[in-house]
Structure formats: C-alpha cells, structure tokens
Amino acid sequence: MNISQLKEISAIAIQHNPDHFTDEQRKLGWLGYQPATTEAIEAAEQKLGVALPGDYKQFLLITNGFFTTSDSTELTFAPVEEIDYLKNIDDFIVEVWSDPAIIDVGEQLIRSIIIGGINDEQYFLLIPNDNESIEWTYWKFASWIPGAHPYKNLDDYFTSTLEFLKKEC
User: Fold this and answer.
1) Cα–Cα dist 111/37, whole Å
2) For helices 54-62 and 154-168, what crossing angle results, to 10°?
3) Cβ neighbour number for residue 12 with a 10 Å cutoff
4) What ranges in the chain are assigned the alpha helix state H?
5) Coil, strand or helix: which one is 112?
6) Tens place of pLDDT per residue across the chain (169 aa)
7) Residue 144 belongs to a domain with what CATH number?
8) Nearest Cα to 32, choosing from 116, 112, 152?
9) Range of the domain at 70
C-alpha cells in the first residue's frame, strides 16, 4: 500500500467531481483520514479474533478509512473501529447468498469481515481462509455486480480504482 497512490486517487477524484466532496477534502486534496493507532488495530483484531492482513494494517496506518471516490461506483472504507463480520452488519445478505444453489458464496460471506461499504450499496470484504498458510481473500461484493469481484490484495483494488479514474477523467 502506498500513500502516493491514494493521494493520486484523491486528486483525480476531487478534480473530476468537486461537488461530491467536502470543503476540507477539496482544500487538502485528500480523501483519507487521520491514521489509525496501533492500539485501535489491535483492539479490532482482538474483537474479531483474527490477525488482520499486513497490507490492510499498513493502509490503516496511512489512513483510518478512505472516502468513496464517486457517488455511484466505489465505496467508502470504514475506520477500523467500525469493521466487523458481515453477518453482524447485514445478516440478510448472508442468508440470501446461503441458498443451496449459491452456497459457495454464502460460505465465504459468513466468514467475511466488512472493511468498506458499510453504508454503501456494495461492500469490500476481507475473508480469512480456513487454512492459516493460505492468504486472505479480498472481494468487492454487491448483489448487482453480480456477486463477488476478487482482488489479489488492497494494492490491486486501489490500482484498479486509479486506472478507472484515469480512464473516466
């Protein structure tokens, strides 16, 4: 995770659609927030019973959340104090996707931790794998995508967001 990439995303998004952002965001040219504390990250890990992936913790140490880059296509990353298991935030979507015909997705959603999109129309999820030697799974998820759009990691997501913004602007 690199701060210059987040700054570039912020600058392009603000320049492209200034009315979508606050006066402070426009003035600073930044869609992020103050960094999270290591204590806040550790408290979230304890609450969730997992060690969060390193790239996500690095992101939090840069910015404790990140405002959506658009009003329709992207999502807001939540402060670490607000993240939780998806089943605790939106048990209905977990139930719907646990239908036997699509149980593979439902099984992933039951284990997923929502880090973005808590009040948006789509989610960004971290999914801990059952086997500790296997990396985490990263999903952008919405019923209308449809379903899961996987990413290798957070850098992959933000790289794709930056590429999208460059094309659109």
Assistant:
1) 25
2) 60
3) 18
4) 3-16, 23-28, 38-48, 54-62, 86-89, 91-96, 103-111, 154-168
5) coil
6) 689 999 999 999 999 889 989 999 999 999 999 999 999 999 999 999 999 999 999 999 999 999 987 765 678 999 999 999 999 999 888 887 777 666 678 888 899 999 999 988 889 999 998 766 568 999 999 877 677 899 999 999 999 999 988 988 7
7) 3.40.1580.10
8) 116
9) 3-168
pTM: 0.91
Pairwise CA distance, residues 10 & 69, whole Å: 7
> What is the number of structural domains in the chain?
1
Q: How far apart are the first and last CA of the chain?
A: 23
Length of the chain: 169
